[in-house]
């Protein structure tokens, strides 16, 4: 299932299905419990009515057991013998004994009798019955009904051929003779079963329809929500096919995640367009810059091959050196653009400046070096790349200075600052950012040999940025340009 809409609809449907099933089960359990408790209460009332009669010594044969179809009753003595049952009760379960035929004592009234004395009990039955009413009138409170919570159980009863489920309540009663009898009275569970069955059937019938509605609504809502995403996808596919990075994806007017995705996509396209344009300009400029020294070198070599006496060997060497330097700059730029990270070695910036200046003994203008004493001027990074930055800044100062070039190294807070100042013409404020672009030379009248390829300052700023620092230009106290390299100090 590859569609987000289909997965969302399926997931929502499954969640709703689980919730509905859980809720339905809970409703059924609560409904069944309430109806069962109601049936138990009816059974308890019926049992206590019969128990009240036993407590008043009503003979078993004269007990009013109520409606036997609605509330079947079974009365047992302390020995578990059946002494009275409802009329037409043919079978019973769930009451402790399945017997439905009263013993001989049921015809003689309350009392305890052994089986061997059944004949005497029959002879005394009429006498007991004649005096029973007088006893109740003289002392109606000699028996009692247990006030304890009745015991409940589920079972079945067959009354007049009809078998049904019942909820039985067991209530104890003690007659005047001290005999404890247990009354089991039942209440039918047909209403409970019918109600639970109806609710269950309604749930089973309505659940598929409800789930279908949930799935359809989720599908439509998800489709509407993902419509802008489809628009973004189509536009990106068109951009890929046309390779036109100037196009942008549509941005919805909402402020949700999809709108943020569209804005981020457009920002990415803008950055990609800038990067591609920069790369194209870089390739074009590099090709243009390489063409001149290569053509000059080829011309000199061809002249030298035809006329050895006219070979300008120093010029050929100079063109070769310039070509080598340009190739090295291009290679370093390519590595920086590829995301190469500098090392984390400790570099003493003051010592590195002195080392670079000492190797430039042939410069036309001497370089003054000033390193702050007692301050930490160590930074973390690549010694070779930082040396390239210092060399490029010194080359730029040498080209523009008239009489002096000064280099200072000092600690400023947690940073280390390296300054290179000259007394040349300086850099106009509107051009102070442009000079850090690749292949940019402000003085178009300069020759390429004098002015370089315009990569030195761009390289210097890229290296500074990748070391977590900055490279800026301002006006020096000497009137020329003052370049400041600021790097985090090594902690």
Give a quick precis of the structure.
The protein has helices at about 5-55, 120-125, 125-140, 190-240, 255-305, 315-335, 350-360, 385-400, 450, 455-465; strands spanning about 75, 80-85, 90, 145, 150-160, 160-175, 180-190, 345-350, 365-370, 380, 405-410, 415-420, 470-475, 480-490. It is an alpha+beta fold and about 500 residues long. It has three domains: about 10-195; about 245-340, Signal transduction histidine kinase, dimerisation/phosphotransfer (DHp) domain (Helix Hairpins); about 340-490, 2-Layer Sandwich (Heat Shock Protein 90).
Rg calc: 54 Å
Give the percentage of residues in beta strands: 15-25%
* Number of discrete domains: 3
What spatial form do the alpha-carbon principal axes imply?
Answer: rod-shaped
Helicity, as a percent range: 40-55%
Poorly predicted runs are 111-141, 444-449
* Cα separation of the termini: 55 Å
Sheet of most strands: 7 strands, antiparallel
pLDDT averaged over residues: 83
By helix and strand content, what is the structural category? Answer: alpha+beta
What's the total helix number?
A: 10
Number of strands: 14
Oligomer designation = single chain
The SSE order reads HEEEHHEEEEHHHEHEEHEEHHEE
List the helices and strands and how they pair.
Elements: H1 4-55, E1 73-76, E2 82-85, E3 89-92, H2 118-123, H3 125-138, E4 144-145, E5 151-159, E6 162-174, E7 180-188, H4 190-242, H5 257-306, H6 313-337, E8 345-348, H7 349-358, E9 367-371, E10 378-381, H8 383-400, E11 405-412, E12 415-422, H9 448-451, H10 456-466, E13 470-475, E14 481-488
Parallel strand pairs: 9-11
Antiparallel strand pairs: 1-2, 1-7, 3-5, 4-6, 5-6, 6-7, 8-10, 11-12, 12-14, 13-14
Helix pairs in contact: 1-4, 5-6, 6-10, 7-8, 8-10
